[in-house]
Amino acid sequence: MSRRTPGDEGMILVNVLMFVAIASGIVLLLISREEIALDRAIRSREAARALAIVRGGETSALVALRRDARDAPDADYASEPWGAIADSDVPIEGGRFDLAIADAEGRFNVNAVRKDDLSAQLLFAKIGRAAGFDDNQLAVAVGLIREYGPISDLRPLRYSGVPSELADRLERLATALPGSTTINLNAASPELMTVLFDDPVVAERLVATRTRQGFLSLQDLADEGVTMPPGASLRSNTFWVRTRATVGGTAQQGATLIQRRAGEEGPVVVPVARWRNAAVPPEAPAFVAPRKPAA
């Protein structure tokens, strides 16, 4: 019969402690995995709910724009009821909600130069020169749009070697949209209004009138002694809606380009392109900062 030495008892204790440590590590690992799985499930549920709310915001824009096409087809401007659906930092159950909506036809649609429309090409040349393009750069831009268009944004022009500062200026005056569009004077920037009317004084007066009453009319143009510029109008059929929903610790956002078309039974309003989260393009309207409460 062998006798146990003091060293043997120490080794047994070490082994026991080692097994306890291993078992504890396994238990902690299982708990950690369970927590990760639970957290993933919660975030997945939050993301699904947030995405549903984002789609709901898009639907509200479709309904508002369809109603506007039926009730007020002659002009479009941001102070109409469709513009009133925009909201910022709205509390919802478990989170917050934002919606931005904007007229997409406040700039020149560069895809118009793909057609054999001399007036569109002349207008693009006029806008391009206002942005600082020379004749060679304009020719390159037109060639690129005709070869690879219709384009969905102006980034291809940047990649073609157009200087960044010129591309920035052009993006303030032009955009890329599907289909045929005009420039809505109710959404055009003061800078573009000056280009369209070739008269900064007239443009300034028209912008002031638009700011004061919320829109422009044909009578307002007549009062200034001018006519509607080629390629311009007072209405739009293309709009942006951008929505963001935060539920718990999960946020989802989407941007949708919406177009109105004539249907057999009245106006049809449909999404023509969608983007989510990081893919939202820079043309989408920014969310309005929430108002600070009065002191």
From TrEMBL:
Keywords: Membrane, Transmembrane, Transmembrane helix
InterPro entries (UniProt xref): GspK (IPR005628), GspK_central_sf (IPR038072), Pilin-like (IPR045584), T2SSK_SAM-like_2nd (IPR049179)
One Pfam family of this chain: T2SSK
Domain T2SS protein K second SAM-like positions: 183-222
Segments passing through the bilayer: 12-31
Record has Protein biosynthesis as a keyword: no
PANTHER family noted in UniProt: TYPE II SECRETION SYSTEM PROTEIN K (PTHR38831)
Protein's recorded name: Type II secretion system protein GspK
Source species: Sphingomonas molluscorum
Native organism taxonomy: Bacteria, Pseudomonadati, Pseudomonadota, Alphaproteobacteria, Sphingomonadales
